[in-house]
């Protein structure tokens, strides 16, 4: 049995830096919302079985859970109306979130073609990139029609700069002005983030003037293109903890689900970024 965690004031995020990039700590532990005011990133599905709701003490954003949905099922099984209903319950019980990601269709090879990748099995959608993009735009339009009052963010999808440009065109042809959106998600880039190709995609999309959110970014990606993002999220702390012994005084096998480790990791990430970019990687508002 793990020891109870005493939560000191040191867990607070502190004063936000004006104009800084909002760096969300990704977790599946929704009760962390009442334990810290550090920006958190949680999947909508983690609230589905909530009996006791935790009121957020700080900023948070909601992920639609698209990667696992398409990885395991090859399609979206949660209808848009059900997703909207879930987002409304979260808003009402937890408090206003910064934004929620739409139900997009990732364009990574594993998601589209399926099979074994990195020791994981993907069902595969067996659809084209163009069809994934079409479905992504169609979903955003449906969600906005169902809930124009909710903060739902569009997500760009593709695998190359021309494909992302095509996705921008699809949104624009559908009447969505991405430059006016508070946040535009940049999908299918997390595995490319530290590469030249990934950096080129981020740079090309940032050149449009979009306020980009980078899904699943790590230190190398933040060092390379963090200054081009309005916000980013990361769950890398958990896999990092799984490969290491627990913190001193912690009795669990490892700290893969430990808020102390997560917050310490987050501080180390921010400290590791070159000094001239640290002001961009803070708890600053994405607004």
From TrEMBL:
Domain DeoxyPurine in DNA protein A: 22-284
Pfam families, A to Z: DpdA
InterPro entries from the UniProt entry: DpdA (IPR055645)
Annotated protein name in UniProt: DeoxyPurine in DNA protein A domain-containing protein
Organism whose genome encodes this protein: Streptomyces hyderabadensis
């Amino acid at each position: 049995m793990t020891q109870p965690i005493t939560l000191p004031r040191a867990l607070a995020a502190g004063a936000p830096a004006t104009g800084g990039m909002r760096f969300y700590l990704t977790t599946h532990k929704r009760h962390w919302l009442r334990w810290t005011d550090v920006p958190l990133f949680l999947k909508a599905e983690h609230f589905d079985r909530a009996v006791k709701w935790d009121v957020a003490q700080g900023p948070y954003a909601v992920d639609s859970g698209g990667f696992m949905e398409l990885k395991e099922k090859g399609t979206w099984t949660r209808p848009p109306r059900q997703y909207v209903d879930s987002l409304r319950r979260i808003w009402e019980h937890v408090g206003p979130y910064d934004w929620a990601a739409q139900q997009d269709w990732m364009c990574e090879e594993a998601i589209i073609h399926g099979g074994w990748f990195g020791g994981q099995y993907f069902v595969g959608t067996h659809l084209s990139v163009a069809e994934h993009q079409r479905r992504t735009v169609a979903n955003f339009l449906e969600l906005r029609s169902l809930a124009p009052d909710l903060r739902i963010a569009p997500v760009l999808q593709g695998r190359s700069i021309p494909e992302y440009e095509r996705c921008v065109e699809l949104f624009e042809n559908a009447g969505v002005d991405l430059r006016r959106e508070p946040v535009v998600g940049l999908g299918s880039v997390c595995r490319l983030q530290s590469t030249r190709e990934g950096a080129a995609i981020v740079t090309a999309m940032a050149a449009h003037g979009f306020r980009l959110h980078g899904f699943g970014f790590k230190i190398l990606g933040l060092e390379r293109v963090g200054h081009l993002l309005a916000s980013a999220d990361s769950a890398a702390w958990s896999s990092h903890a799984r490969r290491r012994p627990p913190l001193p005084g912690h009795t669990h096998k490892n700290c893969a689900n430990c808020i102390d480790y997560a917050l310490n990791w987050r501080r180390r990430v921010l400290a590791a970024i070159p000094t001239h970019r640290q002001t961009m990687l803070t708890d600053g508002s994405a607004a």
